[in-house]
Amino acid sequence: MRELIFYFLIIGAGTGGELCVTRAMKAVGEVRDFRPVAVMRVIIRALRVSWMWVGLTLMGIAFFSLLVVLSRENVSFVVPVTALSYAAGALGGKFFLGEQVTRRRWAGVGLVCIGVAVVIMGRR
Question: Of 21, 19, 13, 20, whose CA–CA distance to 43 is shortest?
C-alpha cells in the first residue's frame, strides 16, 4: 500500500509539476534567443510566475518519491509503471492546459496503459 502512494506521487506530482511548468512557460513566452544572457532573462522571468514554483515543488516531490520506490523495487518494474504519467499528461494537457489531443494520441496513450497493465500482471 505504501508503494502505491509513492507511485501515485511519482505519476501525479511529476505530471502535475510538468503541467504547471508548461503553464508558467506559456505565460513567459517562447524562447527564441539561446545566448546565455537571454536564457538567464527568461529564467528570471519564469521564476516570477507562481506556476513555476508550484511545478518545481511538485516535481521535487515526484523525484524524491521515485528515489524511495527505486530503493525498494526493481527499475525494470518502476520505470514501466511510471509510464502512466503519459496518460496523466494527455489528460492534463486536455483539461488543464486546454490542448487538443487527437485520436491518434489517445490511441498511443491507450497502448502505453496496456503495456503498463502487462508489466503489472507479470510482476507476480
Answer: 21
